[in-house]
Every structure is written in structure tokens, then in C-alpha cells.
Amino acid sequence: MALLDVSLVLSTLFCALVTGFILTFAIVVMPGLSKLNDKDFLRAFQLTDGMIQNNQPIFLMIWIGSVISVVALMISSTIAAQAPQAWLTVFACVAYLLGVQGITLRIHLPLNGRVQSLPIDELDERALQQERLAFEQQWNYFNNIRTAIAFAVSLTLLTLTALR
Q1: Which DSSP string corresponds to 62-109?
Q2: What is the C-alpha to C-alpha distance for residues 157 and 12, in angstroms, rounded to an integer?
Q3: Among 43, 107, 111, 121, which is most exposed with the fewest C-beta within 10 angstroms?
């Protein structure tokens, strides 16, 4: 099996797993947490995100594996430029890196870090409400965007894999 085939299969797998993870946040986790009061919402998010930030090995393998496999796929597609759909493959990879990983780095990690640093037990109701408002809507908005991009990329990679 050529490097292009291996990187395509691994990228498809890892991107689909990341898509499932962020989709779960979009349709289950955040809607569930939204039912909580401000203090419980922020604490629940701290705990949930804390599991991820604590270098959860399977999560890290999938998340970092998606980046490595997508970069390898971009390189192997560029090298095998005569390969059918090489331009579509590179476009999907760039969309994933910018639209999923870029949004995560630029938007979600800073928002998550802010919530992680909150001394929740020391904040009054008004401060808790302000912190939640500053976090929740923006986090969900950009998560929906990265979820749609991740889904489109995964579907594209799955189609490209089926065509090989």
C-alpha cells in the first residue's frame, strides 16, 4: 500500500473520529450543559474540559493523529500530483487544518483556558452570568462551524477513499 493510500485511510479515520467528538459536543454535551445554572454550567465545563486537558491519551492520539495524517496526506497528494482528485484532497486537508484545527487553536483553546482559570466558588451570581455569556454563545457558534467543516472534510475523504 502506497503512502498516499495509507495517509488517506488514516486521515479519513482520524478526521471522522474528531468529527464525531466535536459533533457530540454540538448535539449532546453543550445542549445538556445549557440546562444547568451558571455556576454548575461553568463547573461542569471545567470538569469535562479538564479530562481532555489532562492529556487523555486516546483523545490526544486521535486529535494529533488527525493533524499528522492530514499533513502526510497533503504531502503525498502533492507528490503524486498525477493522482486523480489530488487538488480536492489538498483542498480538503487545508480546510480541515484551518477550519477545524485553526478554529480550535484560535477560538476554543483560549475560551476553554479562560473557563479553566475561573475561581467559580469566589464569583457572585452576576459575575458567573457574565462569564457564561462571554463563553457559551461564542464557543457554540464556532463549534458549529468547525463541526460542519469537519463533517464535510470527513465526507470528502471518505468519498476519495471509496474512489481509490
Answers
A1: HHHHHHHHHHHHHHHHHHTTTSTTHHHHHHHHHHHIIIIIIHIIIIIH
A2: 5
A3: 121
Q: Distance between CA 164 and CA 160 in Å, rounded?
A: 6
Looking at residue 63, its amino acid is: W
Residue type, 100: V
Per-residue pLDDT tens digits for 116-141? 999 999 999 999 999 999 999 999 99
Nearest 5°: CA angle at 45, between 105 and 22? 50
Cell 463533517 locates to: 151
Give the closest residue to 152 by CA, choosing from 13, 16, 4, 9. 16
pTM, full prediction: 0.93
